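Dear all,

This email documents one entry for the complex benchmark we are building for the journal club exercise. For each entry we list the sequence lines for every component of the assembly. Then comes the predicted three-dimensional structure of the complex as a token string, followed by one or two observations. Please use this as the template for your own entries, and keep the labels exactly as they appear.
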Amino acid sequence: MELSFWEKDTFLSNIDVIIVGSGIVGLNAALYLREQSPLLKIVVVERGPLPSGASTKNAGFACFGSMSELLDDVALNGEDAMLALVEKRWKGLLQLREKLGDSHIDFQQLGGHEVFGNDDAASYSNCAEQLDKYNLALKDVIGDPEVFRLSDNLIKKQGLREFNHLILNRFEGQIHTGKMMERLFQLAQSQNITFLNGIKISSFEEAANTVQIHTDNGWVLKARKALVCTNGFTGQLFPELDVIPARNQVLISTPIQGLKMKGSFHYNKGYVYFRNVYDRILLGGGRNLFLREETTDAFGLTDDIQAFLEDFLKTHLMPENSNCAIDMRWSGILGIGDKKSPIITRYSDHIYTAVRLGGMGVAIGILVGREGAELLYENM
Ligand SMILES: Cc1cc2nc3c(=O)[nH]c(=O)nc-3n(C[C@H](O)[C@H](O)[C@H](O)COP(=O)(O)OP(=O)(O)OC[C@H]3O[C@@H](n4cnc5c(N)ncnc54)[C@H](O)[C@@H]3O)c2cc1C
């Protein structure tokens, strides 16, 4: 379909910044740019009718690291790097809550619980041994001397079965992911940010003072700068960047009368995660069991993972004699890589990236969006 003069002269002209992707990073980047200048014409281009990646599909954990995850980070990059990462996530969560308001995103600090079964006895011993040391190390970051607590008593209290140990992170919380994204959209719309949905960017071309952006419907958009916030789909545009797509599948139960479980839970180094959503159980993960199939940027459900999740639900989570059923299933796409840090770069004269969020986008999305936008704005 050809564009009209009017369309071209309004929606598609004099664009200062095009942001590709309307996930948590793209929206926060747009809001940051608006704070810098009321005059910038900011256009967010999104391929889906709704954001179509991870930000509206995730589990809504407002987390900054379970004990075993932090120990892995120390083994990989050293203690200072781990503490810097935790600080970033913690500050990101505080900023997100301040910007959006706890009531708008249903934030609840119900705790993050790491559970251990027969298979990870060694991991538990290691975590339990180091707990005091890391509570001390995190004291200044979180502002409390007891972030982690050995809490085996909570296994029964939370209605869980067939786990041997539980370590509580008292400062983790959970949000309503849909409400968080809806609130970000409301703010962006009130800030005169333009949205073009249902348009996929297919390639970029640098010109003298602009970047020309080709879309899959044959348009060529021109902007002074572009910020790419495409996370797990970045490889489709820039295959040379180390962003590997990782699909995650999730299910949610029907409401369960008298559900005891409250809070968010990690198992097997975070590869399996579950929480209550009101009186339902949300459960996701298992990607590590089928790595080849799940290294993809295609949405979809597989029998193998769904069978694993259903079995896990019945064995560990579903209250005995409950006749709850599975209400919905979906998938989302993460962006991961060799390193845990995001790629926030000036890719070329007019193109910038803020991608590779990993599994903690709720905590760091606001900071990554801002940092990408800041870098771009400095060079405008
Ligand atoms: C199932 C699941 C559970 C998770 N659970 C949690 C959790 O509990 N806590 C947590 O902190 N994190 C969690 N995460 C991770 C978190 O959701 C992500 O880190 C975060 O949402 C990434 O945000 P983003 O804006 O970078 O990417 P996305 O939300 O993926 O946004 C990228 C956007 O770019 C668009 N796009 C891509 N290519 C193009 C193109 N060529 N043209 C136009 N648009 C394009 C996509 O449609 C998408 O909307 C989870 C992720 C998944 C998948």
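Observations: The domain at 65-173+243-336 is CATH 3.30.9.10 (D-Amino Acid Oxidase; Chain A, domain 2). The mean pLDDT is 96.
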